[in-house]
Amino acid sequence: MRVMMQSKQMEMDEAFAASLLYDDDQTDDQAVAREWQNMEDSLISLSDDEKFAKSLQEQELNRSTSTQQQSHVGSSSHDSSDDSTHSLPPDVNIDPDNMTYEELNQLGESIGAVNKGLSKRRIGQIPTHKFTSSSRTRNLVSEKTQCPICIIDFKEGDTLSTLPCAHIYHEECISLWLQQNKICCVCTTEL
């Protein structure tokens, strides 16, 4: 009888263990199901975000396309206007701090390049002389014996340009600099 009771007890223990195991599996299944549902909800939310972003991009594209078409229509009626100067409509408020990279690029393209340098005619008016080892030229060059732009020593026969501020450069070096800037690159004196 004792054996039978032990056998019955073992059956009950096994049944109890199986029920616990089944309950744990069911709890795990419920947790996995909840996790999958959350992931699906996130994907749906992400999909909604993507749709919203795409619609914003399309609106921006439509707006920029219509702006370009308007500018082409406006420019075709003013064929005699200078291409290097572009004007924006007076009612457009431009705030570069709140513009995207693409908007800033588009603005730069619509405005065009701004030349801050000197004209070639004005650059040609800057006095030049040949570098020689004579004392007269040495006084012009003072103690500087190299070009501040290329940092190469002046050689016999080099053509040098002297700016009004008395700084001396290779003619080619300062000409290229002054096409982009109106100032001496050493002392920033405006020419």
From TrEMBL:
Keyword Protease among record annotations: no
Annotated region (Disordered), positions in chain: 55-98
Low complexity composition-biased segments: 64-78
Record keywords: Metal-binding, Zinc, Zinc-finger
PROSITE patterns assigned: ZF_RING_2
SMART domains: RING
Claim: Thylakoid is one of the keywords in the record: no
RING-type domain sequence ranges: 147-188
MF terms (GO), sorted A to Z: ubiquitin-protein transferase activity; zinc ion binding
One biological process term in Gene Ontology: protein ubiquitination
One Pfam family from the record: zf-RING_2
Protein name: RING-type domain-containing protein
Organism: Arabidopsis thaliana (Mouse-ear cress)
